[in-house]
Amino acid sequence: MIGYRVFGARAGRLASAAFICVLTAGCTTEATDGSFGKGDGAGAPAPAKSSPAALVMYPKLLEAAVPRGINMPRGLEERSTQSWDMSNPAICQSNGWRDEMCAEAIATAAGGATDYHTQNISVQMISFNHAADAARFFKGTGTEDDLGANPPGDAIDAYTLPAGDRGWTGRGITVRQGSVVAKVEYAWIPGAEVPGRLMDITKMVVDRVKQTQSGKNPTASLR
């Protein structure tokens, strides 16, 4: 399934990191699995000859790829950023990744940004030894309506967040770049005027993963 360009949309539930649960009071436990095949024009990143180890995203490399507050749109502050190895798979599961993914993953990471009142962004990542391993877990069907004709990443899908107890709602995108799968979720309170920047954040996340996988410092930012 390497080189399988995917994009789509679906409504469904997905678990968020602990901090978004606090703000939205609406946690779920199902990981996204929807996608739509377009062809085989896109593939996994070419190995970085100068730094081949960078292609395997162990905890510290994966954490480095997560955007910090300074990379996010102005007006949003960074929430805690952290990474984990798989010595305790329950952490992987508690972040909403499916059991079969956690069984083969090598690391997970999470971070995000918020204004603490009206909007919250969460970014979660999970990495595998090979792009083919990540591709096996990214399957399903959908359409390109919500994502456009040329979305970022090797595979991508959009979904709607379920409403939380306080009425928080939002959108999410799951994207695969090589051996890494990332979930980007944007939630806000009812009536809030939230800019349509979910895709911009997703593109930044993909660029940061690409940079890290190539042995470079992840510098992609929205500022």
What is the tally of beta strands?
10
Biggest beta sheet attributes: 8 strands, mixed
Name the poorly predicted regions. Answer: 1-54
Give the overall average pLDDT.
78
Spell out the helices and strands N to C.
Answer: EEHEHEEHHEEHEEEH
Q: Measure the end-to-end span.
A: 35 Å
Count the DSSP helices: 6
Quaternary state of this entry equals: single chain
- Structural class given helices, strands, pairing? alpha+beta
The radius of gyration over CA amounts to 16 Å
How much helical structure, as a percent, in the residues? 10-25%
Shape: globular
Which band does the percent of strand residues land in?
A: 15-25%
Concise account of the structure shown:
This protein is an alpha+beta fold and 223 residues long. It has helices spanning 18-24, 59-65, 89-94, 99-104, 131-136, 198-213, and strands at residues 5-6, 9-11, 37-39, 77-78, 82-84, 107-114, 119-127, 155-161, 169-177, 180-188. The strands form 2 sheets. Strands 2, 4, 5, 6, 7, 8, 9 and 10 form an 8-stranded mixed β-sheet that branches.
Topology of helices and strands:
Blueprint lengths: L4 E2 L2 E3 L6 H7 L12 E3 L19 H7 L11 E2 L3 E3 L4 H6 L4 H6 L2 E8 L4 E9 L3 H6 L18 E7 L7 E9 L2 E9 L9 H16 L10
Parallel strand pairs: 2-8
Antiparallel strand pairs: 1-3, 4-6, 5-6, 6-7, 7-10, 8-9, 9-10
